[in-house]
Design a protein that fits this description.
- This protein has helices at 50-57, 71-80, 109-115, 175-195, 232-235, 262-269, 284-289, 347-350, 379-393; strands at 14-21, 26-32, 60-62, 65-66, 119-125, 144-148, 202-208, 239-243, 251-253, 257-258, 297-303, 312-317, 320-325, 359-363.
- With 422 residues, the chain is α/β, with parallel strands linked by helices.
- It has a domain at 4-155 and 170-296 and 398-413: Alkaline Phosphatase, subunit A (3-Layer(aba) Sandwich).
- It has an eight-stranded mixed sheet with strand order 6-5-1-2-7-8-3-9, sandwiched between helices. A four-stranded antiparallel sheet has the order 11-12-13-14, with helices on one face.
- The longest helix is centred in the middle third of the chain and has 21 residues, at 175-195.
- It is globular and about 55 Å long.
- Bound molecules: 2-acetamido-2-deoxy-beta-D-glucopyranose (NAG) (5 copies).
- One 2-acetamido-2-deoxy-beta-D-glucopyranose (NAG) binds at residues 9, 181, 184-185, 188.
- Residues 25-157, 177-271 form the Sulfatase N-terminal domain.
- Residues 1-22 form the signal peptide.
Length: 422
């Protein structure tokens, strides 16, 4: 078994790299944090991402690859192959002060890869909880971890060592510059793989964890909405696959893929088999050969954490999408030069609004940007999707979203966020 040299990258956007090695193939799974649909050069020439563009064009750009509206739920799905609403992680992201983590009774992808003889390394952002050691990456299948446990850290926010959140710092955020810095890091990784002579034996999967955050200049145009909304702008991922095993080049793949699929798909690419009870589907054969996706429906999210104000949920079946409840705060179509959000808007209070009991139906084949609500025109289709949504809703594990705990304080741990308080 060969071990892979760790490499280090960290910008606000490069957050989580899973890098495993063995034969066959090496697997590099890159999660670009908050990267929007329109935040890459291959869609938007004003964004400078030459390395990403080259990698994307050397394989398949995934045109209908979906993630959850915010990051912890997506990361949970990448790791477990299960929807977040099965783990109680459907309500927003884990706060640093919350005494919780991704449930320990779920097997993580790197644990399965280790059974196949892989060496496993994680670099960058975790955000799946850290209040006790058992929650942290090296207890959940990774041989090594070089990164941070919480939501963000980058050149601008190193004051986090004192436990401060960058939102207190009012630093300017230049999204385009950060994306280009991430691209440079990915260029460096590509170079390192080539120097090691293993580039051709490496499968590279690249995905965002949710749509671009509109209020921080992330951009999803022409898709509707953004991070933390159930619209496509929050959930339809910038993603591509390239390298070992992928047979198509310079190709746009429009088959449906969901975040929950990556765990069984990566496992299959590595020569393993996933548990048949997963929500995720093994899409490796479909991706490898660019054939039809094995998926026809998925859940965007189901979250009824605060039933007194109504929850939200959305499902896609075939070309149709039903949104039930409040879809999120930023509901428009925002061009890249859009400015003017109140930076004090708090995602947590805006995910769900009181008494929004409306349903919306879209045909994403005819109307991928969600301009025309068809719910009045097609009550029969609404009924069908709503009933399927109910089927999933019956499986929900109540959201595990505890109050902040004072014992998390970094001041008790030499100024750092550390495990040991739950
Ligand atoms: C994990 O435990 C929770 C709570 O007991 C349960 O609902 C869930 O089904 C379990 N999941 C697995 C994969 O064992
Ligand atoms: C954003 O950062 C890039 C790269 O650092 C720089 O070229 C550009 O001028 C910056 N844009 C703004 C609006 O500050
Ligand atoms: C990429 O590598 C160069 C050369 O080692 C280094 O100077 C640069 O900082 C690296 N870029 C990033 C974003 O890590
Ligand atoms: C990698 O693949 C490319 C394209 O097929 C080929 O030109 C190159 O020689 C290969 N490199 C190695 C080290 O096998
Ligand atoms: C990719 O998605 C866009 C937006 O929905 C659509 O215009 C385009 O036709 C799709 N491409 C393919 C190959 O499906």
């Amino acid at each position: 078994m060969e071990t892979f040299a760790s490499f280090i990258t960290c910008s606000i956007f490069v957050h989580f790299l899973l890098c495993v090695s063995a034969k066959p193939p090496h697997i590099l799974f890159i999660v670009a944090d908050d990267l929007g649909w329109n935040d890459v050069g291959f869609r938007n020439p004003d964004v400078l991402t030459p390395n990403i563009d080259k990698l994307a064009r050397s394989g398949m750009i995934l045109n209908s690859s979906y993630v959850m509206p915010v990051c912890t739920p997506s990361r949970n799905s990448f790791m477990t192959g299960h929807y977040a609403f099965k783990s109680g992680l459907q309500h927003l992201a884990i706060n640093p002060q919350q005494a919780t983590c991704a449930p320990l009774n779920y097997t993580f992808l790197p644990q399965k890869l280790k059974e196949l003889g892989y060496a496993t390394h994680a670099i960058g952002k975790w955000h799946l909880g850290f209040c006790k050691w058992e929650c942290t990456p090296t207890y959940r299948g990774f041989d090594t971890f070089f990164g941070f446990y919480n939501d963000q850290e980058d050149y601008y926010t190193l004051s986090v060592a004192g436990g401060k959140d960058f939102r207190d710092n009012k630093v300017p955020v230049n999204a385009t510059g950060m994306v280009t810095a991430m691209d440079e890091a990915i260029g460096n990784i590509t170079k390192a793989l080539k120097t090691k002579g293993i580039f051709n034996d490496t499968l590279i999967i690249f995905t965002t964890d949710n749509g671009g955050a509109v209020k921080f200049a992330g951009n999803n145009y022409p898709l509707r909405g953004g991070k933390a909304t159930l619209f496509e702008g929050g959930t339809r991922a910038t993603a591509f696959v390239t390298g070992a095993g992928i047979q198509k080049f310079n190709y746009e793949y429009s088959g449906l893929i969901h975040a929950v699929d990556w765990m069984p798909t990566v496992l299959s690419a590595a020569g393993g088999t996933a548990d048949s009870k997963l929500d995720g589907i093994d899409q490796w054969d479909s991706l490898r050969t660019a054939r039809e996706s094995k998926r026809n429906e998925f859940i965007y999210n189901i979250d009824d954490f605060r039933p007194e104000i109504g929850g939200h949920a959305a499902i896609r079946i075939g070309d149709y999408k039903l949104i039930d409840g409040y879809p999120g705060l930023h509901q428009g179509w925002y061009k890249p030069d859009h400015v003017g959000y109140d930076l004090n808007e708090d995602v947590s209070t805006n995910c769900m609004r009181p008494f929004f009991d409306k349903m919306m139906l879209f045909n994403l084949q005819d109307d991928p940007n969600e301009h025309v609500d068809l719910s009045r025109k097609h009550p029969d289709i609404v009924k069908k999707l709503k009933s399927r949504l109910e089927y999933y809703h019956n499986q929900i594990v109540p959201a595990n979203f505890p109050k902040n705990s004072a014992s998390s304080a970094p001041t008790s741990y030499g100024g750092f966020w550390s495990p040991g308080w739950c």
